[in-house]
Amino acid sequence: MNKNRKYALIIILVTNAILISFLESLIPIPVPIPGVKLGLGNIITMIGIAFLGFKDVLFIVIVRSFVVAILTRGIMMLVFSLTGGLLSALVMWLLYKKFSKLFSIKGISIAGAIVHSTAQIVVASIILGQVVVMFYLPILLISSIITGLITGSIAELTINEVRKKEVFKNVNQF
């Protein structure tokens, strides 16, 4: 595949990740727990993990985090978004590339959601200088399992369809 086509596919993924994340921020979740969201933008991260190299996945996560933070939650939220996004992408990448025989896409997505929530709570604890924030973690971990399963189910269906259509055929992954 030529580089222009690869870059076009990456830009399409980045744009979709931004759009999905932005639209998700406009939809109220009927759960009375602050900070809980589906994380639908991670569907795009999982597609990147399945078909692209790690640098490309990092690019998608970083650009999405910057744009969505600026458009929705403000620049102060960027540190939370980047930390959670980058660490979860790293964990999902490792699980997919090294342990995909042990973990399904749904399981990898759940692991990513758990890492994302944990990273954000740790960052909040550091910024606030308060360990008490950690008491919120069990609630977020339970929601991470549920939202990771939902996101992973959608990602699994999407990856299978993209694979059938050979959209990323001959893409250099490294």
Distance between the termini: 13 Å
Radius of gyration: 16 Å
Beta-strand content estimate: under 5%
Sequence of secondary-structure elements: HHHHHH
Unreliable runs: none
Shape: globular
Q: Which class do the helix and strand fractions yield?
A: mainly alpha
Overall mean pLDDT stands at 91
Strand elements, count: 0
Largest beta sheet, briefly?
none
Number of helices: 6
Helix content: over 70%
What does this protein look like?
The protein is mainly alpha-helical. It has 6 helices and no strands. The longest helix is centred in the last third of the chain and has 29 residues, at 137-165. It starts with a helix and ends in a 9-residue tail after the last helix.
Describe the structure in brief.
This protein is 74% helix and 0% strand.
Features:
174 residues, mainly alpha, 6 helices, 0% strand
Secondary structure layout plus pairing:
Elements: H1 3-26, H2 42-51, H3 54-73, H4 78-99, H5 105-128, H6 137-165
